Amino acid sequence: MTDNLELSHQQKRAFQPQRLSAPRNFTLPEVLAKSEVPLVLEIGAGKGKHALSFVQQNPDKHLIAIERTRNKFDAFTKLAAQQKSSNLDAIHADAIAWIVHAIAPNSIDSIFILYPNPEQHNPNQQWLNMPFFEFLLSRLKVGGEVILATNIETYIDNAEQQAHEAWCLPNIRRKVKSDSQRTHFEVKYLARQETCWQLTMRKPKDYQTRFDSWTIDNLKSIEI
Ligand SMILES: C[S@@+](CC[C@H](N)C(=O)[O-])C[C@H]1O[C@@H](n2cnc3c(N)ncnc32)[C@H](O)[C@@H]1O
Questions:
Q1: Number of H helices, E strands in the chain
Q2: Ligand 1: distance of its center to the CA of 45 in Å?
């Protein structure tokens, strides 16, 4: 099993975390210094609908929700300020650079990627096609999950295939219930009677990536 894992995604072009500068005004959320609570990431949180209800429903978990588009992030922080949930950090940044600079290996319980940009003309930018996905998996704990949802059938087909063949991740594909309302995009697509899918991928025991011991401190020691 482990040999197969090494042979598949470790033949892919490797992501190069050392090339990414820290996002502007980068600071580490306090929770990362002292975390005893389960940590959850959301990538591309939009206006924060899912993030805001997730933290209310899961007071025992801490969510770090990342959104790079300024106007969506502003709408998100406005609502977050009203809700005042202490188990939420809303981050305005590109998630790739931010995760490289902030997140330790084997530290995240689950990762939500809900209705990512379809990238139909640039499939290399779909999350499971990116070399960064291997780095992301290195940040996940064993048994941790990546939860991806989309209304684009070709996106979920490709993600399912990549999860099996490239990343060797046990996964479950299902249709999103027609009354689900987790995000603004989910509400919009389901109101149009579109089918939405979810792929839940689990990091198995003994999973290996090329970044399992890579931390931002490695980089700092090289620079010195
Ligand atoms: C189609 S929207 C979905 C927003 C929200 N998840 C929803 O379902 O309503 C995709 C979002 O991902 C954000 N996004 C895309 N790539 C990102 C990245 N690398 N880092 C942070 N946010 C990103 C975009 O700015 C956009 O708001």
A1: 9, 7
A2: 6
